[in-house]
Amino acid sequence: MSVLTQQQRLAVGDRAVSAERRVSDVIAASGATFPGSGASLTGVVVAGVLDASNLDSAARTGLQWNTVSAVEADDVVRAESVITRVQRTEDTVEVDRHLRLIDEDGNVREQGIETWRLPEGSAVGTDPATDFCTVAWAELLREALADDRNFTSSLATWDGTIGLCCLDGSGHSREVHLRIYRGRIIDISRRVPGGATFTLRAPASTWVDLVFGEHHDFMRRAIRGEFSSAGDGYEYLRLTKPLDILVIHARAAANDRRRAQNDASPLAGGMEARS
Fold first, then answer.
1. What is the enclosing helix (H) or strand (E) of 138?
2. CA of 214: how far to CAs of 22, 122, 147, 195, 260, in Å?
3. Cβ atoms within 10 A of the Cβ of 194, count?
4. Helix (H, G, I), strand (E, B) or coil at 120
5. Tens digit of pLDDT per residue, the chain (275 long)?
6. Is 249 left (phi over 0), alpha (psi -120 to 50) or beta?
7. 143 phi, psi to nearest 5 deg
8. From CA 112, how far away is CA 98, in angstroms rounded?
9. Which 3 state secondary structure label does DSSP give 105?
């Protein structure tokens, strides 16, 4: 697996995949003692060894870990990761990464969300097109949606507010509310008085997969339960068409920006940038 140095540019959607290795070999190479069948820390140790070089010189500040089926000594697994959030402030750079351990049959055995703080001067890409469910992201989509007759006609008689929420690591979330009247988004804000008519929620990794996936498959993901909703469930089901159109424009915006960024500053070897 390649080493990602701080000279390389990190951006939402960057993916990395390790070689497949037997769990017992990974544990032995790490110098740790295998804690035994079903132990909750085994997957965390294995994922760290397989993927530790991906964020060289960074400090992990948060971890949420979930075990679907605990890895055991004889299992052969690989680590797959994708960056789901990049946030730059005046003096820090913070990155969320979704990390999965996948066995030989393609099953996700264990997974988690890591939050990392990068060294000062690290090269990162921030863009509203991949800062899901923020006011800047929604403003980017508003103009395109205003010119889409399918979107405006599907909401021509509707008066309400759609909430969109992206669940991040360390218990954080990004949320934006779209106030819609007769097919037009008339206001965009983080919150509206009285709350949204309904709010559509999904983990950041789902938003990344949805936006950068090879195929537009919002409806399939929604049917499979990858999104949850709060508020008026009837209105959510009634508005699946305009939501589907919104996702089409979100995909176009993110992929256009990503291609432009890659053309201007290609990622160095080993790190996949999937669009």
1. helix 135-146
2. 30, 29, 25, 34, 18
3. 7
4. coil
5. 333 333 457 889 999 999 999 999 998 888 766 655 555 688 998 998 898 556 767 888 999 999 999 999 999 999 999 999 999 877 788 999 999 999 999 999 999 999 999 887 777 878 999 999 999 999 999 999 999 999 999 999 999 999 999 999 888 999 999 999 999 999 999 988 889 999 999 999 999 999 999 999 999 999 999 999 999 999 999 999 999 999 999 999 999 877 776 666 544 333 343 33
6. alpha
7. -65, -45
8. 6
9. coil
- DSSP label at residue 194: T
Question: Which tokens sit at 222?
Answer: 């929604």
Joined together, the tokens standing for residue 141 give 């989509």
CA–CA separation, 95 and 168 (whole Å) = 10
Helix, strand, or coil here: 187?
strand
* Predicted pLDDT of residue 71: 93
| Measured distance CA(78)–CA(80) in Å, rounded | 7
pLDDT for position 264: 62
Q: Say if residues 270 and 54 touch (Cβ distance below 8 Å).
A: no
Residue 64 neighbours by CB under 8 Å, 6+ apart: 112, 113, 169, 170, 171
Query: What are the distances in angstroms from CA 22 to CA 31, 96, 104?
Result: 15, 27, 10
Q: Please name the residue that has the structure tokens 């969300």.
A: 113
Residue 133 CB partners (closer than 8 Å, separation 6+): 164, 165, 166, 173, 174, 175, 176, 207
Instruction: Return the amino acid letter for 248.
Output: I
Which residues make Cβ contacts (< 8 Å) with residue 149, sequence separation at least 6?
none
pLDDT of residue 261: 67
Phi–psi pair at 75, nearest 5 degrees: -70, 145
193's tokens: 């008085």
